[in-house]
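Usage example:
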Amino acid sequence: MTSTVISAETDIYARRESAARSYCRSFPASFTQAQGARLTDDQGNTYIDFLAGCASLNYGHNDPDLKAALIEHISADGLAHGLDYHNTPKADFLKTFERLILKPRGLDHRVQFTGPTGANAVEAALKLARKVTGRRTVIAFTNGFHGVTMGALAATGNSHHRGGAGGGSLTDVVRMPYDGAFGPEVDTAAQIEAMLDNPSSGIDAPAAFLLEAVQGEGGLNAANPEWLRKIERIARKHGALLIVDDIQAGIGRTGGFFSFEEAGITPDLIPMAKSLSGFGLPMACLLVRPQHDIWAPAEHNGTFRGNVHAFVTARAALVKFWSDKGFQNEVADKAALLTERLQRIAAIIPGASLKGRGMMQGIDVGSGELASEICARCYEDGLIIETSGAHDEVVKVLAPLTIETDLLAHGLDILQAAAGESVCVRALAAE
Amino acid sequence: MTSTVISAETDIYARRESAARSYCRSFPASFTQAQGARLTDDQGNTYIDFLAGCASLNYGHNDPDLKAALIEHISADGLAHGLDYHNTPKADFLKTFERLILKPRGLDHRVQFTGPTGANAVEAALKLARKVTGRRTVIAFTNGFHGVTMGALAATGNSHHRGGAGGGSLTDVVRMPYDGAFGPEVDTAAQIEAMLDNPSSGIDAPAAFLLEAVQGEGGLNAANPEWLRKIERIARKHGALLIVDDIQAGIGRTGGFFSFEEAGITPDLIPMAKSLSGFGLPMACLLVRPQHDIWAPAEHNGTFRGNVHAFVTARAALVKFWSDKGFQNEVADKAALLTERLQRIAAIIPGASLKGRGMMQGIDVGSGELASEICARCYEDGLIIETSGAHDEVVKVLAPLTIETDLLAHGLDILQAAAGESVCVRALAAE
Amino acid sequence: MTSTVISAETDIYARRESAARSYCRSFPASFTQAQGARLTDDQGNTYIDFLAGCASLNYGHNDPDLKAALIEHISADGLAHGLDYHNTPKADFLKTFERLILKPRGLDHRVQFTGPTGANAVEAALKLARKVTGRRTVIAFTNGFHGVTMGALAATGNSHHRGGAGGGSLTDVVRMPYDGAFGPEVDTAAQIEAMLDNPSSGIDAPAAFLLEAVQGEGGLNAANPEWLRKIERIARKHGALLIVDDIQAGIGRTGGFFSFEEAGITPDLIPMAKSLSGFGLPMACLLVRPQHDIWAPAEHNGTFRGNVHAFVTARAALVKFWSDKGFQNEVADKAALLTERLQRIAAIIPGASLKGRGMMQGIDVGSGELASEICARCYEDGLIIETSGAHDEVVKVLAPLTIETDLLAHGLDILQAAAGESVCVRALAAE
Amino acid sequence: MTSTVISAETDIYARRESAARSYCRSFPASFTQAQGARLTDDQGNTYIDFLAGCASLNYGHNDPDLKAALIEHISADGLAHGLDYHNTPKADFLKTFERLILKPRGLDHRVQFTGPTGANAVEAALKLARKVTGRRTVIAFTNGFHGVTMGALAATGNSHHRGGAGGGSLTDVVRMPYDGAFGPEVDTAAQIEAMLDNPSSGIDAPAAFLLEAVQGEGGLNAANPEWLRKIERIARKHGALLIVDDIQAGIGRTGGFFSFEEAGITPDLIPMAKSLSGFGLPMACLLVRPQHDIWAPAEHNGTFRGNVHAFVTARAALVKFWSDKGFQNEVADKAALLTERLQRIAAIIPGASLKGRGMMQGIDVGSGELASEICARCYEDGLIIETSGAHDEVVKVLAPLTIETDLLAHGLDILQAAAGESVCVRALAAE
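Running the assembly step on the lines above writes:
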């Protein structure tokens, strides 16, 4: 298989698509079809997908039941664009979400349909937390990623993305060390508490804490449940809202529907997006505890809040995967397999270590160069896989949760071979 | 027809949807189907749509050719979510956009697929203009609307939306008076030029001017072509980029594909969204002159940049409506009808005047109260129509461009009756 | 007289004084003594002082009565530095200020002794206005100058000084056109009111308007009393405080003790500095209407708030010059002389016009180059005089108010000769 | 002695001085004279001064030699106000400062005379660091105090003072933990380095580090020399300037002329003020390494940069106290006495500990309430002494460095008695 055969299509990209494009540089194939965990390009080559739309395709590509529901809706002239009108698919989604997700978890949150991107849900959360508390400062964390619009960008740690603001103001965010930022022995929550307890620390009373339970772009850093509970307690003590950005880590990716279930905390605001529609369609929402839902009508608005196609597939996904524990159990089994295999692979890479949780795991291989090399080899062998982390030093597995076990194993075989080869080549070169 | 019959569905909204919802308060029906310029609710009532998803449905609901293309794509397991991978529908869209839109208009712009909302395209423009110029200040205009994310919100004039930031910083934007802001006799462009020419004016050298050629939310204020050319000249003279936000006014809404064609200017950056997909699906892009396309890969990114369904319908729409002048001529005829009828309606409302251009026209009825009353009567009679303007004082007609002439006329009959009735009732009440 | 003989002292400046120094570049003499309106350098040359410490020496250098009071105080071991302790000279100053200045003008303001610089008094005003109103935005004006600390710098128009912030944030200030900014026929107050009345203008409700009644650094622009009254009315209508920065234009410079007396307005906050001590000693205060004096103790503090030497001379100056109308009448006579002579000088400069009011007048000679040339010639002939304005195009007369009439006339003779010579040389060069 | 006899003067303060006044609330006497370490009030009571104008009077009140020089200067009609003109006293000060202070310490810095307050020198430093580096972020520390103008206020930690901004923007400062902020065992410098080394930490590349070697207002926290050296190294490594604010801790207060001499570091920028004039007169400067002195003329300016009276006394002080090691040795002896006595006093207060260094020491008594009580008792017994720290929990001794040893001992006797009494009363009350 030769993915280096650049299709004739490519010219148009060079000529007319912005230099901001990126994944297509690592994976230059031109894709035409996709099913489950497999992608096909215009040369007929197939690829195993260990990226899954950056966790936007937790149920894989074109799940047949979701696809059927969507085609039926379109065929019947169901609405595509519904502003924030009432409409049957939206009502059905809300009722199903309430019944299968919120109620069983004791969550009384309301759903705000924001513009259909994760960044927009984070923007809504940042604005609402400030509105509720009358405060301006939001505490965000090292290595956090929350989007690249100017409000959300302020909360994003990555210097590459921050630089995209071209010097425009990224304000009202105070940065604190995430769990483990100074090594496992330093309790950063205690340090944060000391800062906030000190009236001369220079940290103004915060409107909110904004965090991911597992940092996806930041390097698959998984916060300890105990640390999350401490942060929740500190937030409550200081009158700040707790925002858990569950855009990448939520919707089954780390085990439960929400990434924070394990820690037993109750965030005030929860931005959701990515796999929310279940089909890869743009959809986002902010879950808001009722007492904080003080928006005036349309105070946060946007044209595409009512992506009705997405409501249809989102509901179908909830019914198919979250009506009982079956799916969760399956995911847990695959996550166990993943852990085991990644440990074996890490063992052959000097200094490597496992990162992450559930189906959001990877290997810190120590350098971005080595990680990129491994991913490039994988692509040559038909596996799409990416890096993350401050130095792109983590090879990250984000397979669809629905991937067949043997396909998952096959993908991991490719990864293991690529890792082994990369390490050997380096060892030889070093001699 | 009784739209006041609240369906049983409504409970779920009260219980679980955020207070931020708004259109459903004016139009409480629960919609189930839509075709062309007609919506149907769950009670079987039909409505004429003079809102068209706030100009996101310029080609109407569920256009049969676009719908067929979309169903074909989905049925064949075409990608739904494509990150920023190369894929056939994207290449086809780009090639068609180049051939039918950019080339004939002499535009050398590249296309940056941003997150699929207008606000995201504006955010990208604001960031890029700062990056290109190394400056921070962006000049935006009174009554401009550019979205509600924190960067874009800074550029939005409306105090209601600005208040949604809860006191968070909205920075680096300087506000200038739009054309006509101080009456028709004041040349605000000359005042802006005087401010910028004065090194002690306190206005820092701007990175960009950001404006709409016709302000949609701001009250259908249409800038004079001469004023637009002056602003373009001032921007060039001061080394600033010209950003024309064509999200609402573009894609045929005011006559040409772009709203600024008439003025003969060439913006450096053009945010597009709303009707871009042609089907109401979330899609946005930023057109960027090649010399300004200095993004590093992924410097501005986002999960849903590759909404492949939208590429499919967007291309189908270009082919169907922009292959020749037929559609534009049709739109011009309807716009002329609209002008004529609105003039007649305005004539019966004391002090009323026409606003806007093309199929983006309305009547300034002098007060938000009267405008709301007229719209509410329209809804009772099966017409969906909304207000705009700083005081919601403009009744705004945003019908699909594809609306049948007799349906347009029928809708305007309803509007005329509602206006007449509202004026009479008021006159009687005042006696 | 040869001021170009550089004294041996100069080396030390090149070696050890920062490049930020500036006046010494135009006037390179090394001064040793000063009396009234005369300065003497270390070569024995004398100069007429038409700069008066930028209006910090309204009573001239080393006024004998003030000097005697100061020496008496120091000799008796009176306090030099008094923090904000009660002390007799401070009490005496406050009582005299109340009796001779505040009460006769019907002002109930309190005196806040801020750090002893004008910028600090402006900083205190900006902070207090925000504290009182709970709002952030302050409206400042084109060509305004209010100091170069970061808060005050945000309110300063001059791009040279703004650039000194090195890209740091200058925030929360909205810039509006000063009276006459767009020519005499445009009522900028009406435009400002239109902006503030429009809820979609993008201008947030302001905490305060900050302005000078005559703009000193900005080019001796004197606002029309009617315009000042309009701004006061607009401020009240929109719940904003009115801050009149009387640092340069106050203390007799424009006729009355305050520059705004003529307009009959009552500012809420009045920053004072420069000639406040009467002797050129650092001293500043903010006058605050009692209802706005909501500071907590030390909330705005500073080490040198209690410059007791300055209290001593400030009180002596009030007693000497403001006990009756004699001084004001004298100043009015000199101002009339000044106007008459400047008109004659302006008449010989093509396109020149008079600027300013009272003893704060000058000539707009059309270009900074010509203005500098004239000032340089004056210096050669023993007259110290400077330029102001956005382009340094105004030759500005800021003589001590106490200057003897014949010395004033003598200085104006020098100015007239210099202007004539400069104009002739240019005319010849142009032939 | 009854300081509670409120003099008739007091009314005027209530009537006409702003509520921002503060020290006069703790020490309500009205002072008339001062000599060395003694103050006298209008009732003839005398007080020992352990506050020394918050370290602005390191050489005591009205030092006879400085006083004589000043009276001589004034008597001879020497300039009082000299803008930034060359003048003999300024040249003499610069030459003496170069000879006695800069050269012996190997410092090549230039002197920028800023507005005559510490805050202004800090503002100049913040602006210059941003100008030099082209960066915006300044790192400041917990418990730092750098003034209350809006730029400097951003760098101040204290929430009371920060609140004075009334919600205005305090931007572009990132807060880091000072040495010891998380206890003696945590190396905060290492944590800061980890944050800056991480490109995803969210901390933008800093323009500067701004710190005090001993935090005066923050609670007499003395940084370890090793920590200071680490911060210097980190600053250099990351291309940031090192600013040591030596306003309170400098000029002999902690032993050497500069507080950082002991650590052997070379700050790029050094704001100086308080005791710089030696006589309590307003004077400030910023020391700038020559390569960073990139100011354009007047880019940072201000009316009172040339307080010539202060140049006269400042030079006299340098000559008198810094011509040889005698003064420093004396100060060292007194500091040793101070340490010894404070240890004895701390021993009688449960949980108390010593803070600070040199003649800038105090006792952390555990609570602001107890500290205030002790200071109030001292005042009753004729000793002026204040608290500092985030909770005002530190009783701080800032006696003139020139205080006679027996007067210092006498003051400490009063402090000891007051501490003992306060502790006893509390112990009895607790029974």
